[in-house]
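We include the pair:
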Amino acid sequence: MDYKLDQAGIFITAEIHIKDNVPLSQGLAAIRQFCADMNSESGCSLAMATQHKTHPKQFVFWERYDDQAAFDAHFVAPHTQAFIKAGLTELKQAFDYQRLATEV
């Protein structure tokens, strides 16, 4: 699988928590499906969730989009809107970066 990690693009790191009142199994299923859906988006070459070792309801998402248009399209995608509206998780923080420029 080519993640294009060595190419220009938009790189997102986001900390997500499954809400306290949501069963872990339900939250895990939603996160797995959301990552699968993101990986099917045109312009998204990587979407994966990593789970905290000792706090199983805490996750860090790593995502890579080809460009700003692909990243913007992600937020209006039906699966993204459904994930947000389900209210199973909360976004704690997010970082939006691009590759370091090779020239100054």
